[in-house]
Structure formats: structure tokens, C-alpha cells
Amino acid sequence: MVGFLIKRLLQAVFVVVAVTLIVAFAIRMTGDPALMLTAGSSNVTEADLLRIREGLGLNQPFYVQYLQSLSGLFTLDFGRSFMGGTPVSQLIAGALPATLMLAFASMAVSILLSIPLGIHAAVSQGRWPDQMIRILSLVGLSFPNFWLATMLVLLFSITLRWLPPSGMNGFATFIMPAVTMGIILTATNVRLVRTSMLETLQAQYITVARAKGLSESKVLYKHALRNCAIPLVTFLGLQFGGLLGGIVVVERVFNWPGMGSLAFDAVASRDYPVLQAVIMILSLMIVAVNLLVDVAYGLIDPRIRTE
Amino acid sequence: MAKSQTRSNMRFGSLEFILGAGLVALIALTVLFSDVLFPGMAGEINLTARLLPPFQEAGHIFGTDALGRDVLARVAAGGWISLQVGFVSVLGSVVIGVTMGLIAGYYRGIWDIIVMRFADVQLALPFILLAITFIAILGGSLRNTIILLIVSQWVQYARLVRGLVLSLRDREFILSARAIGVADRNIILSHLLPNLMGPIVVLMTLNVANNILLESSLTFLGLGVDPSIPSWGGMLAEGRTYLQTAWWVSVFPGLAILLTVLGLNLLGDWLRDSLDPTGRVGR
Fold first, then answer.
1. Helical ranges in chain A per DSSP H
2. Which of A53, A185, B175, B255 is most buried, taking the most CB atoms under 10 A from its CB?
3. pTM reported for the whole predicted model
């Protein structure tokens, strides 16, 4: 077990180093931030440029700058935004909770939808409810997330006027963004629940539970569901990267004040310290979640460790 | 043997195949012949016919956009970008990924390590995040979108092929081929590769669908294809401004994406049932 833990941890460290190196290198390729910062103003002297470069730490070699940005992940100091000089950590502290809350809300929606649907599909295997759910899951998988979001706005904000179209301000504003991503996640999760349910229902303890005379809903939701929880939780963990990627896009439609909006504003204004911090933090979180899932799974199921 | 088995599993009468192939054929033909069906209409600006609602004028069944251009003609023309990105990016990824996967699975060693570590990195850096970073630097264009898709996706094929090769390389038919002195290159190309085609084709179909979705998101966000070229993502970005007054500008391009991707997903699902019954290609 200890060997397995160390191996997984080293892999995770490698990934973090690789990802941060890619991002830092890419951002360095963009050119001289000092020139970009002074692009609008006239009479900029060479001395001004030098002073700006020194202020931003750009006169140091690449590896020093890289190590500094890496240490930012520990000290939570990511430098200052090019736009207005706000500390990047302050911007992140505002945006990260919004994105994470949306991520958890989407997962909650997806769990609430995919468990009953998946169980229903498994129980009616091969008959029309199963077929319907299978087709619906394929349709859900084929929706562009940003278009689904736009269509929800069209229906519930513009036509019916039930829900606010954008912003993050109370429970009502969470509904459409969370439902958008929830539906997209459900499309894949429902198949997973169905498959693992079908497997579980073959088990002898299910036959025993039925033979004892337990009601069918108790057999399904108490006894069988427990067994499906492990693959579902694992899968939710592995989906985390895709979920964040999706949220980043959907945030744009709903003007959600999260990491995605922060990143796009940073792209538009070439605010590289902000962009770099956003990408690094999101990737780090994905690595951490994947590591957690891996380790948890290794603890539960010893077969994984030897692979 | 493998061939006859594959054939008997192909159920061309299944609903999934008929629907999937029908949708893909309909859309592909409309897009490929858009110049013939709607000659010059996609770019034709007519400011006296701005934002005409759909189903009212015979000349503009899907209505017109803010510049009076026919939405149907633009949807047909815009599909060209999606199909191009979908197919070219997948072909590129397959060529690189399958080659790397074969080498990694057959020779193991350093190649195996490289492929697996790339796979770890790819898992941690979702396409959209990678795209935001690099598009900010390189600028958005059709070419850059395709390159980014290939860079982030070849690993999927490499990982799939590596796993399959690992399970095959110690089987009798490979060992005996090696024992009678068949060259590595021939073992890989004529004994291993044919046995991998099923799962590869399944993954390709699903990825064409997925890449069409990714391209449209990027273009919608203004990070993909040049907005002056008609594309589904670009039309949706424009349509957002008029969502309050002209729903049709946002509805029809999105519907086109949905139906295209659905058709490909149906085909992919059907192919998976036929060619990859053990389900090596996950979602």
C-alpha cells in the first residue's frame, strides 16, 4: 500500500510540474509584457521599460521565474494583475468559490437525476423505458453545453420570465447553470448506474433480500444502490476535469463570476499573471481530485494497487 | 475468422444505425452541396430583410439574421468548418496516437513511459483550458484549433492501442510469428494492427462528434475560427445578442450541431456494439 501511495504521489507531482511548465512556457512565448503594458502611451523610454521588467521580475532567467510562479501555489502569492495591479490571489479568492459551488451543484443535480433514471433503466432492461433512457442519454451527450444554456435562458428567462438570465445572486441564479452541467453529466452517469446496477442485481445477496420479502424499492435503493455508489463516486471524480472545462464555458453564457470568466477577461486584456494562475490552480485541483479518487479506490479495492 | 465474426455482428437494420447514418448523411450532403443548394446566399447581405422570422417567407424558411442573410444557407455553409475540424483533427490524432501506441505497447521501455506520462498530463489539462492558454498566444484560427485538438487528443489513441497491444503481444499467433522470424515491423502492421481496428474506429467516430462540440465552444467563445467565416459556433455567438428579439438566429445553428453530433454518437454506439463488444472504448 505504501509503495502504491508513493508511486501515485510521484506521478501527481510529475503532472503538476509538467502542466505548470507548459503553461509558464506558453505564457513566456507571448512576448514582452513591458511592451504590452506601455502599448497605449507615448514617450516611453528604454529606462521605463527596464524598470517595469524589473518590477515584474522579468529580468530574471526563465527557471527563476518558473520557480517563483510554482512557489505561488504554496505561498498563494501569484503576483499582481497587469490591469490595475490587484493581487492575483485576491481575484482568485473571489472567483474560485463561485466555480466550485457551481461544480458541486452540477454534481448534485446529476446524482439526483442519474440514480433514479439508471435504476429504472436497469430494472426494465431491454424494454421501452430502458430504450428511452438510452436514447435520452445519447441526446444529452450530443448537446453543446453553451447552447443548452442559451436555450434554457430563452425558455425560462425570456419566454416564461421565471428565472434570472445571468449573474450569481441567490438560489434562483444557480438553477440554470447547475441544471445545464447536471444534464450533461447525467448523460454519461446514467449509463454507469445502469451497468453497475445490472451487475449488482445478479448478486446472491439481492436474491436473499428479495426472498426475505423486502419491498422492491428497499431492495433497489437500500441494498443494491450501496454497491453502485463506489463506481459512481469514482466516476464523478474522474469527470471533475471535464466538468471544470464545461463550467468554464457555461460561465460565459450566464455571466457567472467564476474562474472561466476570469480567464476569458484575462485573455481579452492579455493579463498573463491572472491567466497563468487560473490555469495552474484548476489543473492542480484536477490532479488532486484524481489522486484522491485513485488512492481511495486503492484502499477499497486491493486489486488496483498491483496494476 | 475475425472478418466473418465482424460481419455477423453488423446489424444494419437496427434503429441506431438507420437514425445515425441517416442524420449524418443528410447533414453531410447538405453541407457538401451547400453551394449548389444555396448559391451565394450565405454571404448575401440584405439590410431591408433584417431579422425576418422563420417559416414566413418561402425564400427564408429559417428566417434571416441581423444583416438579412439567410439563416438556412448560413447553417449549411457553416457546417463545412465543423466537418473539416472534426475529421481532420481525428485523422491527425489517429496517425500519431496509433503509431505511438503500437511502439509503446510492443517495445515497452522508454516509449511506454513517455506515452503514459503524456496521458496523465492530458487528463489534468482539459482541452478548453489548454485552448484558452494557447489561443491567447497564437490567436484563434481554423488551423490552430485543429492543431490543438490533435495535441490534446492523440494520447487517447495511444493509450487505447497500447492497452490492446499489451493484451495481444503474448498471444500464440504473435509469439509464433516472432518464432519463425517475422520482422517486428510486419508483426505490428499485419498481425497486430488489424486486430485493433474495431476499437480504434469506435473511438474515432465518438471523437469526431466530440471535436465538433469542442470547436463550436471555442468559436462561440471567440477563441476558434475567424468570425467572418460562417460557422455554427460563430453564428451562435452572434445570435446571443439578438436572443431577446430573434430566437431563430440562436436556435437553428445549435440544432445543426445537436443533430450532427447525435448522428455520429448513434453511429459510434452502434459501431461499439458491433465491433467492440467488450467495451474497451469507454466514455
1. 2-28, 33-37, 46-56, 62-75, 88-123, 128-142, 145-152, 171-201, 204-211, 216-218, 225-254, 259-268, 272-300
2. A185
3. 0.89
